[in-house]
TrEMBL record:
Homohexamer; trimer of dimers. Belongs to the MoaC family. Its EC number is 4.6.1.17. GO terms for biological process: Mo-molybdopterin cofactor biosynthetic process. Residues 144-163 are annotated as: Disordered. Substrate binds at L75, C76, H77, M113, E114. Pathway: Cofactor biosynthesis; molybdopterin biosynthesis. This is Cyclic pyranopterin monophosphate synthase. It comes from the Bacteria. CDD domains: MoaC_PE. It comes from Microbulbifer okhotskensis. Coiled coil: none annotated. Keywords: Lyase, Molybdenum cofactor biosynthesis.
Amino acid sequence: MSQLTHLNQRGEASMVDVTEKDITDRSALAESSICMSAEAFALLSQGAHKKGDVLSVARIAGIQAAKKTSDLIPLCHPLALTKVAVDFELQPEKHSVYITAFCRLAGRTGVEMEALTAASVAALTIYDMCKAVDPAMEIGPTRLLQKSGGKRGDWRGDAPENS
C-alpha cells in the first residue's frame, strides 16, 4: 500500500525533500473539458465573443497557471518548466471544448500538478469569458492522462474519451 509522502516525522504536513532524488526527464499530460450552450459555442467557435479570442486567452492563462502552480497548491515544489503546451479541440456535436495540457522538465519531481493546473485554469478562463452568455457551463472531468520519468517510471491512464 502506498504511503502519503507529505508528512514529516511528527505526522505534520510538510514539503517533501527531493534533494537526494535523481534529475530525470519528466512530463505529464492532463485533460479537461467545458460544455456550453449552442449559443456560447457558436460565438466561441466563430471568434465572435465580445471579450475577444477566448481560446488564445485561455491558452496563455493555462501556461501562466502551470508556471505558478507552487503558488496555488500548498506543498508543491517551484519548478523550472522547460515546456508547457495547452491545446484545444472544438467538439461541435457536444458544444464543448476538449483541453489538453502538457508539461515537461528535467528535474527531481514530477509535473503532474502543473499539467492539471494548466488544464483547469484554461477551462476556468473559458468559463469566465463566456459566462455572460451561458452561466450554466460545465467543466470536467479533469484528470491526468499520462506521466513519464521519476522513480515510479511511466504511467498511462485510460485512453481519453474525447480525442
